[in-house]
Write a structure and sequence with these properties.
alpha+beta
Length: 271
C-alpha cells in the first residue's frame, strides 16, 4: 500500500511523491489522481504546507521564474519552488480550494521532469484510434475538448495536457490526470503517436501540410513552462525538430462534427 503520509503519482513512468500538512489533504489527492497512483520510487519529492483559506481564486496562475536548476512561482497566498539538484519541491499556500492549486504545482513539476527525461508536456487533446494516438492542439477555444466530445467511441488520453516521450524511432503519447469538470475525463493509458493536428475552425474539412518552420512556431506555443528557461530554449527547439521529423503535422480545418475523422482515416489508412 501507499504510505499514508504521502501520495505517489506516476505519469509516463515518471513518479512524483507528495507529502502534505495537514495530512487530510492526502485523501483528496488520492481521489483526484486515483488512476495514476503508484508505489514506485519517486524522481521528485514535494512537500505541501496549507495554512489557512484566505485565497479564494484557485485559477489565478502565479508568476513563474525559471533558472538553470530552480523553478520558483509566487502569487498572494501561493509560494513554491522546485530544485532540480536536490530533487525536492515545496509549496506553501493559503487557499479555500487547495487541491486545484496543488494541481498547478504538479503540472509544473511534470513539465520540468518530462523535459529533463527527454520528453515534453504538451497542450493538446489526445485520442487513441486503432492503437495509435492522434493529437489535436491549438489555443484555448480552438476545439480540443470539442474534438474529444465528438469522439466518444474512442479513448481520450486527455483533452488538454499530454506527456510525449520518445520511443525508438517514434514517440508515445501518455495521458495525464490534469482536468476539470468541463473537460473529458482523462485516461492513464498511452499509445504510439501517429499525427499532430493544429485545429482550425472552418467551413470546409481538409488537411493542410505545414512547413517545418511554421510547425516549430506552433508547437512551441503549446509547450508550458519550459520556454521560460533560456538555457533550455535551444534544446527545446532541437527536440521539437526531432518530433516533427518523426511525426506528420497538419493544419486540420474542421467543422463542429465528427467529419474530420473521415479525412484522417483516409490520410492514415485507419479503419
Amino acid at each position: 500500500m501507499t504510505h499514508p503520509n504521502n501520495v505517489k503519482i506516476e505519469i509516463a513512468n515518471l513518479v512524483v511523491s507528495l507529502s502534505c500538512h495537514p495530512p487530510s489533504l492526502h485523501k483528496h489527492l488520492r481521489k483526484r489522481y486515483h488512476k495514476f497512483l503508484t508505489e514506485d520510487k519517486a524522481q521528485i519529492e514535494a512537500h505541501i504546507e496549507l495554512s489557512g483559506k484566505e485565497r479564494p481564486n484557485a485559477l489565478l496562475e502565479p508568476k513563474t521564474t525559471f533558472n538553470k536548476d530552480t523553478v520558483r512561482f509566487t502569487s498572494p497566498g501561493f509560494q513554491g519552488e522546485i530544485d532540480l539538484k536536490t530533487k525536492k519541491a515545496q509549496l506553501r499556500l493559503s487557499s479555500a480550494t487547495p487541491i486545484e492549486e496543488i494541481d498547478y504545482l504538479i503540472r509544473v513539476i511534470y513539465a520540468v521532469l518530462a523535459f529533463e527525461s527527454g520528453g515534453l508536456l504538451f497542450h493538446s487533446a489526445g485520442i487513441v484510434r486503432d492503437g495509435q494516438s492522434f493529437l489535436f492542439f491549438g489555443h484555448s477555444g480552438s476545439g480540443k475538448t470539442t474534438v474529444s466530445r465528438l469522439s466518444p467511441q474512442y479513448l481520450t488520453l486527455n483533452d488538454d495536457l499530454l506527456i510525449l516521450m520518445p520511443q525508438g524511432d517514434g514517440w508515445q503519447a501518455h495521458g495525464t490526470p490534469f482536468w476539470n469538470p468541463s473537460q473529458t475525463r482523462p485516461s492513464a493509458q498511452h499509445a504510439p503517436l501517429a499525427g499532430l493536428f493544429r485545429l482550425v475552425q472552418d467551413k470546409n474539412v481538409h488537411l493542410e501540410k505545414i512547413s517545418k518552420g511554421q510547425a516549430l512556431a506552433e508547437l512551441i506555443g503549446n509547450i508550458p513552462i519550459i520556454p521560460l528557461s533560456a538555457p533550455r530554449n535551444l534544446p527545446l527547439l532541437h527536440r521539437l525538430e526531432t518530433l516533427i521529423d518523426a511525426i506528420p503535422i497538419y493544419h486540420l480545418h474542421f467543422l463542429p462534427d465528427d467529419s474530420f475523422w473521415q479525412i484522417i482515416q483516409k490520410q492514415f489508412n485507419i479503419s
